[in-house]
Amino acid sequence: MQMYPLEMEGNSNPKTTNKPKYSKFTQQELPACKPLLTPEIVIAAFALIGALFVPIGLASLHASRQVVELVHRYDASCVPVDDKVGFIQNSRTDKTCTVTMTVPKYMKSPIHVYYLIDGFYQNHRRYVRSRSDKQLRYKSAAHLTSDCVPEGETADHAPIVPCGLVAWSLFNDTYTVRVNGVVTQVNKKDIAWKSDKNNKFGKNIYPSNFQKGRLIGGATLNESIPLSEQEDLIVWMRTAALPTFRKLYGRIEKDINANDNVTVVIQNNYNTYSFGGSKALVLSTASWIGGKNNFIGMAYLTIGGLCLSLAMGFLVLYMVKRRNFADPSNLSWNR
After folding, report:
1. In the chain, domain spans
2. Cβ distance 292 to 82 under 8 Å?
3. How far apart are CA 238 and CA 122, in angstroms?
4. What is the Cα Rg of the chain in Å?
5. pLDDT tens figures, 38-89
6. In the chain, N or C: fewer CB atoms in 10 Å?
7. What are the coiled-coil residue ranges (predicted)?
8. Is pTM, for the whole model, over 0.90?
9. 261-267 β-sheet, strand order
10. Contacts of 188 (CB under 8 A, 6+ apart)
């Protein structure tokens, strides 16, 4: 028997439905801005973007070109033999190396000292995961080393702090800087992010059993200094996203004049030869935009120039072939 709508009103057990409760959100009836892109608005928008981006690009490019940067690759020149891997792995060889650079322009302090490594994939999944963040932060988590294999425990099953391949491979080249023959202090304080020091590394966590195994990966740590103050380690533990990266080694708090000779005595300890990598020393000043980076300025100039070109092209087209907006006579079926 067919049931009509009026009869359904009196039905005490109506059929259930999946119809949602009415609201302006579910029915897409909320107030919305629906701009009409007239030729005038499009031309003005492109012109405004271009007028903003071009000055930003010029300022960024100028700031980048004001940065003075010296880069000296030393991994090849600091090993005098053909068997570079054997040389670097031999603990009895003298690995002292001296490089000299001439400063082309005045360098205003602070002058940042970086080490640059190429061909080191710190973003490898197994490498990135080989660490224990809880162990670095909490004293009660020293035993949490399951993610740190093969550098989680010693041969007698004592936990390594800090554990994992990231800490184990800590960079251990050292630099002694002389300017015109005078030793210049490299300040290694405050080279790590403040948030990392305060939130990721505990003030009561001290290294233990670190680099005590048969195979030494990199630098050792002072067991009397808490991890929150071992800034070389903190800088290294912030892994890089790309295989070519630079990390801050320290700062020179002294101006260096043009044509000064900078001599750097390097202890070439870090093994990049086994995986075909390279090392370089970088001295660089900084500007309001940071270090030397022409890409940002060029990107702004390119986008700004393109927008200005489009604005000019649309303006010429609009002036030559002007037509009324929303004129139905321009529809194809009305022509």
Report:
1. 38-67+292-322, 73-286
2. no
3. 9
4. 32
5. 888 999 999 999 999 999 999 999 999 999 999 999 999 999 888 999 999 8
6. N
7. none
8. no
9. 96-102, 261-267, 174-179, 182-184
10. 231, 232, 249, 250
Dig out the tokens for 309 from the structure. Answer: 């070109």
Structure tokens at 7: 């009869």
CB neighbour list of residue 281: distance below 8 Å, 6 or more residues apart: 71, 72, 74, 99, 113, 114, 115, 116, 175, 264, 266
For residue 103, give the amino acid letter. Answer: V
Nearest 5°: CA angle at 224, between 281 and 196?
A: 55
Taking only the tens place, the pLDDT of each residue in 179-199 is: 999 999 999 999 999 999 999
C-alpha 203 chain-centroid distance: 26
Question: Alpha-carbon distance 102 to 229, whole Å?
Answer: 34
Sheet holding 186-187, edge to edge: 69-73, 278-284, 111-118, 244-252, 186-187
Cα separation, 39 vs 183, whole angstroms = 66
